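Chapter summary example: a protein plus adenosine-5'-diphosphate.
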Amino acid sequence: HDLQEPLRMVFSYLQLIKERYGSKLDSDADEFINYAVDGAKRMQGMLNDLLNYSRVTTQGKPLEKTDCKDVIKQVLSNLQIIIKESNANIVYGDLPIIIADTSQLIQLFQNLIINAIKFCKKESPYINILAKRKEKEWLFSVQDNGIGINLQYSERIFKIFQRLHTRSEYPGTGIGLAICKKTVERHNGNIWVESELGKGSTFFFTIPITRGDYEQ
Ligand code: ADP
């Protein structure tokens, strides 16, 4: 993408300085060049995140009949390695067929499940996915037994690049929930969290029931 071009230029000129003048510079200069490369790398990561964020609306597909059970099966297959490694136990109830952008729904559940596994200190993360039919919407929930969230931050975590931990504590860039929120809003729904510190969190989101929705 064009946005990456200036960064590629920064990378290649830093590389050139290193190669051509490396032997003439002192160790401080070497260190400074490495910092500059690190900064540029982080910038590249953020740029990629921003592109993915903006693509939720610019490259969204038409909403179509989507079986949420198939969505979860796909997510569990995509995540089979981290599920195995983390010893996570993921269960789900009856899930409906709704009108949605299938790949975005996969991404949405995937982000929530990855977080539920990541922000857990217990030996086995336990994750429960449910859907309830309300009058005008489906209410989905993804519940975990993880570290929980101080509710003071319950809105902030959905903002882009906002995180509550350092990258050394828990890896990540703070884009996942921002993408979830944008996705749910593209479907005219809402997303929020309820949580108790140390006990776990439940992420809820709604998707309006459209004519053409089918229950299983
Ligand atoms: P990232 O995972 O890269 O930090 P997210 O946007 O997915 O970015 O999440 C933002 C922040 O919200 C996380 O850094 C974490 O502090 C908090 N968070 C998200 N999901 C959970 C969860 N299931 N349990 C506890 N905290 C969570």
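Key point: The first strand starts at residue 64 and ends at 67.
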